[in-house]
């Protein structure tokens, strides 16, 4: 069977998120369909959290970017639509370069977010979201 590179990366991200969340004390539940708006459900202390996982690499500036949209391609071209933030409680961004998961609530951000792994070269700190601050699932 042929490998599908982006699917493999997505699967790796979900597996990393499952292990990381388990180590944080969550019970992990997996939907029986690939068509749900979330990849897994994390349960702890009587609360369920629907988690969408994204696999991302660092860009050349030392940040991890995530857009709160979904995209697909068909015979009419490539399409994108915003994520319904009422259907997802947490985004988990797995960064292959740091081998870490970062967790955020999509409702706390606009259409995208950038998490800094490295300090900006210009030294800017105001308005910067450092990835290390998002290591634990809220």
Structure description:
The protein is mainly beta and 138 residues long. It has a single domain, classed as Trna Endonuclease, Chain: A, domain 1. The protein has one helix and ten strands. The strands form three sheets. The protein has a five-stranded mixed β-sheet with strand order 1-2-3-7-8, covered by helices on one side. A three-stranded mixed β-sheet has the order 4-9-10, with no helix packed on it. Strand 5 (69-74) and strand 6 form a beta hairpin. The chain is globular, with a radius of gyration of 15 Å.
Which blocks of ≥5 consecutive residues have pLDDT under 50? none
> In what range is the share of β-strand residues?
35-45%
- Secondary structural class: mainly beta
Order of helices and strands: HEEEEEEEEEE
Q: What gross morphology would you assign?
A: globular
Q: What is the overall pLDDT average?
A: 92
Report the biggest beta sheet as strand number plus sense, adding barrel if it closes: 5 strands, mixed
Total individual domains: 1
What is the fold-level CATH name, i.e. the topology?
Trna Endonuclease, Chain: A, domain 1
Strand order of the largest sheet: 1-2-3-7-8
SS summary, helix count: 1
Distance between the termini: 39 Å
Binned, the helix content reads: 10-25%
Radius of gyration over all CA atoms, rounded: 15 Å
CATH architecture: 3-Layer(aba) Sandwich
Number of strands: 10
Q: Class, according to the CATH hierarchy?
A: Alpha Beta
